[in-house]
Predict the structure.
Amino acid sequence: MASPLDPAPSVVQQSPTVTAEVQAKELSRPAETKGVSGANTNSWHRLRDFGRSSEVKTGLLFLPPALLVFTLFVTWPVVEAAYYSFFNWNGYGSPTKWVGLDNFLRVWNDPIFHHSLFNNLLIVLVSACFQVPLALSLALLISDKSRSSVVFRAIFFLPYILGEVVAGLIWRYMYDGNYGVVAVVYRWFGQEAPEVLATPGWATAALLLVIVWKYFGFHMALFVAGRQGIGQDVLEAAKIDGASRWQVTANVILPLMRPVAVLSLFFSILGSLQAFAIIVALTDGGPSNSTHSAVSYLYNFGIKRMRVGFGSAIGVTLFVICVLVMVIYKRLFMRPKEGR
Amino acid sequence: MQSNRTGLFVYYRWLILLLASGLCLLPLWATVIGGFKSSGDLRTNAFGLPRQWLVDNYVSIATGVRFWQMLGNSAVIAFVSVVLTLLVSSMAAFVLAHLRFAGKRWIANYLALGLTFPFATAVLPVFIRVRDLGLLDSYWGVILPQVAFNLGFAVVLLQGFFAELPHELFEAAFVDGCSYPRMFWQITIPLSRPILATVGVLALVGSWNEYLLPLVMINDQALYPWPLGIMQYQGEYGTDWGKVLAFVSLTLTPAVIFYLMAQKHIIAGLTSGAVKG
C-alpha cells in the first residue's frame, strides 16, 4: 500500500476505509510526519491559492449552519437576557414595563439567592477537600493495566454515566426515613431514622454526599489518565536512586499530577455552577429552600413562574459569575503551558 | 522485608478498593433489588434479596406503552442531536482548520464562547425564541438548542484534530483536482473517526441525560424524554417505592448496557474530551 507521502490518487478514489486505516497508522507518529510536511507547506499554500474560488464556495457552504444555529440559540439569547432583565415581563407580547435595575436588586438582596450561591460554594469546597483527594488516591491504586484495575475503574465510573435524575431518585429512596437504607441502618441500632431530606442542614449534607458519589469516578478517570501519562523512565530513575514506593508517590508522582488536580477542580466548579437536575430529583430545593443551587433557584423563581425579567437578571448574574470565576481560575492556576 | 511490605500493600489495596466499590454499587443494588420487593419487605429488608420475588412492578412497566414511548422520545432526540452536532461542527471545523481567510480566528473564538457559560443562564430567551419559532412541544425545540450548545466543545476538539492531519494528503488530492467538499468527505472524515467518536459520546451522553431543556420546552406528555417521564412517574406514585425503583431500574438499563459494551471508549471519550475541550 502507498505510503502517506505518495501523492497517490488512490487515497481519494479507492475505498476510503482501507486506505484510511493505513493513513491512521501513519498518523500515530505525528512528529515524523510533521517534520516532512514542514518543507512542503509552502507549495501546499501556493497550490491552494489557485483554488481560491472553490475555497470561498466551501466556506460559504460549510460555515453558515454552525454560525446560524450558534447565534440563534447561544449568543443572541445571552444578549436578549441582558435586555429583558431591565423589564418586568411575563413573556407575552413585547416587554414594555421598564424597571431599571429593580430585578437585579431583588436578586442580589434575596437571602435565598445568597444561600443558593453558598451551596454552590459548598459543593466546590467538598469537592476540593474530599472528592478530589479521594479520586486521586483511588486513581493511584488502579492506574496500572491489570485486570482488577480495569474492573474497578469501570465500577467507579459507573455512577457518572447515570442521569442526574436517576441519581437523585435513587438517593431519595436511600434517605427515605421510612423505607430507605438509612432507615434500615438506624433500626439496626434500635433507633428511628430522622427524615434526612426534610431537615435543613442534613438535607444539604445528603446532597453533597450524592454529588461525591456520582462524580468522584469522573475525577478518578482524569487522574488515571494523568498517571498513565507519566513516563516510565522518570519512575525507573527514582527507583534506581533508591526511592521507596511512598517516596516515589510523594515526590515524583504527586507533583507531576498537579495540572490534573487543577483541571479536576476546574470541572468541579463548572459542575457546581450547572447543578440542577440532581437537586430537583433529590430535594427539589427543599426543605424551606435550603438546598437550591444557583440554577435551581433560577428555575424555581424565574422560569417556573414565567418572570422573564427577574429570571433573566438571575441568568445574567450567573453568566457574569461564570465568566469571572473561569477567567480568574485560569489566570491563577492554569497559566503555565496549558493556558489555552 | 520488601516482599512482606508489598504483600501488606496488596492486602490493603484490595481492602480499600472492595470497600469503595461496595459503597459505590450499594445504592444501585438496593434500587434494582428493591423493584422486586413488597412495601413491607422494603421497610425491613433494604439490602437483602427479596423474601418473595414480585415481578409485577417490572412486568407492568415493561409491557406498558409509556415506558417505551419515553425511551423512544429520548432515543430520537439523542440520535438526531448527535448526528447534527457531528455534521454541523465538523463542517465548520474543516473550514476553520484548512481554509485561510480573514476573520478566521475571530470565528473560532466566537464559537469557543459556548464553552464559557452553562445553558441555564440563557434558558429564558431560548425558550421565547423556540416558542416564537413555533417549536415548543416538538423534538426540534430540544434538538436545536442542544446542538447549538454542543458546538463550542465540538468545534474546538475537531478543529484541533483536523489541523494535525498531514498536509500531503490534501495537497495530493488538490493536484488531482479534488474539490474541498470531497476532501472533507473522503479524507478528513474517514481519518478522524477517533475524535468523531469522542465528540459523539459526549453529545450522546449529554443529550440522553438532559433534563432542563426538555423540561422547559416540552409540555406534551407523549413527547416526554425519559428524565421527564421518570420524574412524573415518581410524582404519581410518591413513596410507592417498589414501583418507582422498578421504573428507575428499567430506565437505567439501556445506559448501563451501552456502558458495559463500550466501557473503555466511553471513559476515554468523556475524560479526554473534557480535558481537551
In short: The mean pLDDT of chain B is 90.
